[in-house]
Amino acid sequence: MLKFLRLPTPIELGKAKTNYLPFSALSDNKDYSWEDYDKEVKEKYPVKYFINETLPNILRATKHPFSCVYRYIKYNFIPGCRYHILDLRQPEGECDCYRWGYSDVRERMLYAVFNLIVFFVEKENDHLHGKISYLEKSILSSKENDNLDEAGILQVQVDFYREVMVIYDWWMYTRKFNYSQSRSLFEVWMETKDKSDLDKYTKSHDDFEKEEQEMFMKACSLREGLWT
Hints:
Oligomer: single chain
Largest sheet: none
Shape: elongated
Helix content: 55-70%
Radius of gyration: 24 Å
Structural class: mainly alpha
């Protein structure tokens, strides 16, 4: 595109030392973000913004007259693309055995949130461990080039993804292990009918549900950063 028609970069606006800006949803501070940049260039350069951002979207919408039909078929009938439908089914196992039929809202909420976390980690980001490793290498490269601002922005992303992986690993492994431990205590009590064994099971069950609620709330708190 002709140079005089393009939008100025964050550096050219004098708002940042690098063109790698954070997203406000992933940043705890008040640094200049992509959202701030988008708002500023839209207000200061409405014509350029229209040419660079709005017009391409209009052209894409009118270029393919059958795109709406294609998208309707794709997102309604192709497995894996029906994003408007949440699959709440769980892998077969002792901890969770829900496959179909009625389920309380409290249970469906739990499965909905954590199934989405699993989808984010395994599908949208092709297993997040690999993405974290790539970002960490980029951080080292930025530091070697004395680009500390860029390294700081990338570190925010890494820290966020690590939080997501804590949630993922807990749901996939730790929670299942804790459930089996609690279940074992229940079976012991069923055999002995001893009050002390009942107390042990009751405590483990209460601890399990308390941790489950805490991790559920923590997963919800990460919502704004779960974009691809």
